[in-house]
């Protein structure tokens, strides 16, 4: 019987990993998406959408679906799902691997300031009106309605509906990857003074960081949340190697 692997996805890394593993006829892959994105990209393997109902629900799913191993390839900021995966796999006695992109590292010319969370980012903007680029999820940007003195440019994968309750906001609906040249043009067009983003890591959305550096802009970076201490790798290639060691072809 094929070994069933559950990939907790929602990232390009998860999609890339699933595509790599499809070459293994002895593996049965399931990719799980949280369902927060209205129009997710096409995946190379069967997909389930939606939550599991907490740790207990995930344990039940692992058992009823006959899962042999789990790979947590969720976004670095999806800490709750990572905690649930670690707890559920420990209870079910299943191997778990976390595929976690390395964070971006500050270099010469960067004006980064790390903040612990979204409310702290709102407060860090200050009282003086500024032109702010929000490169965050559509739900996270809603907190910035508490600072209506600023002018906002919001970029998200899905439309922000309803729009922010602020006097001045513009919206860009787009999915990466983004280039440094394109993001610099966007920031210049909207006369952006400060960028608010997550330290997601990887090349797909690094363009805005390069653009901010070139323009000498301040960047408010949300700190990465704490995640469980489980076996982890940084690349899809390393995750494939883990699977090959666990289930030799």
Give keywords.
249 residues; alpha/beta; six-stranded parallel β-sheet; 7 helices; 29% helix
Short description:
The protein has helices at 12-21, 54-64, 79-92, 118-124, 180-189, 207-215, 236-246, and strands at residues 3-8, 27-33, 47-49, 67-72, 96-99, 111-115, 131-135, 151-156, 169-173, 194-198, 218-222, 232-233. The chain is of the alpha/beta class. Strand 1 (3-8), helix 1 and strand 2 (27-33) form a beta-alpha-beta unit.
SSE topology:
Layout: E1 3-8, H1 12-21, E2 27-33, E3 47-49, H2 54-64, E4 67-72, H3 79-92, E5 96-99, E6 111-115, H4 118-124, E7 131-135, E8 151-156, E9 169-173, H5 180-189, E10 194-198, H6 207-215, E11 218-222, E12 232-233, H7 236-246
Parallel strand pairs: 1-2, 1-4, 2-3, 4-5, 5-12, 6-11, 7-8, 7-10, 8-9, 10-11
Helix pairs in contact: 1-7, 2-3, 5-6
Task: Characterise the protein shown here.
This protein is α/β, with parallel strands linked by helices and 249 residues long. 29% of the residues lie in helices and 24% in strands. The strands form two sheets. The chain has a six-stranded parallel sheet with strand order 3-2-1-4-5-12, with helices on both faces. Strands 6-11-10-7-8-9 form a six-stranded parallel sheet. The longest helix has 14 residues, at 79-92. The radius of gyration is 20 Å and the shape is elongated. The mean pLDDT is 94.
Query: What strand order characterises the main sheet?
Result: 3-2-1-4-5-12
Helix content: 25-40%
Q: What's the tally of helices?
A: 7
Shape: elongated
Largest sheet: 6 strands, parallel
Per DSSP E runs of 2 or more residues, the count of β-strands stands at 12
| Topology order in helix (H) and strand (E) letters | EHEEHEHEEHEEEHEHEEH
Q: Stretches where pLDDT falls below 50 for ≥5 residues? A: none
The structural class is alpha/beta
Whole-number radius of gyration?
20 Å
If you average the pLDDT, what whole number results?
94
Distance between the amino and carboxyl termini = 13 Å
Relative strand content? 15-25%
Oligomer: single chain
């Amino acid at each position: 019987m094929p070994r069933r692997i559950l990939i907790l996805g929602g990232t390009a890394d998860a999609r890339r990993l699933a595509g790599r593993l499809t070459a293994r006829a002895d593996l049965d892959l399931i990719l799980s998406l949280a369902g927060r994105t209205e129009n997710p990209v096409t995946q190379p393997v069967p997909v389930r959408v939606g939550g599991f109902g907490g740790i207990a629900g995930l344990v039940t799913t692992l058992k009823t679906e006959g899962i042999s191993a789990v790979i947590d390839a969720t976004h670095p900021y999806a800490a709750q799902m990572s905690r649930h995966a670690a707890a559920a796999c420990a209870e079910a006695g299943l191997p778990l691997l976390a595929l976690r992109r390395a964070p971006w590292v500050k270099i010469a010319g960067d004006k980064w300031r790390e903040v612990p969370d979204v409310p702290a980012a709102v407060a860090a903007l200050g009282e003086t009106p500024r032109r702010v680029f929000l490169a965050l999820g559509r739900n996270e940007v809603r907190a910035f309605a508490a600072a209506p003195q600023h002018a906002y440019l919001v970029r998200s994968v899905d439309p922000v509906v309803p729009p922010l309750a602020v006097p001045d906001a513009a919206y860009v609906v787009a999915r990466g990857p983004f280039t440094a040249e394109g993001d610099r043009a966007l920031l210049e067009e909207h006369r952006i003074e400060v960028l608010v983003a997550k330290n997601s890591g990887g090349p797909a959305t690094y363009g805005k960081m390069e653009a901010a550096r070139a323009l000498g802009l301040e960047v408010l970076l949300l700190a990465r949340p704490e995640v469980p201490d489980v076996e982890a790798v940084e690349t899809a290639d390393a995750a494939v190697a883990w699977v090959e060691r666990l289930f030799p072809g």
